[in-house]
Amino acid sequence: MAPPHPLSPFRLPTPPRYSCPVLRIGPLQLDSPLLLAPIAGHTDIAFRILCREQGGV
Question: Which range of residues forms the domain containing residue 48?
Answer without folding.
Answer: 27-53
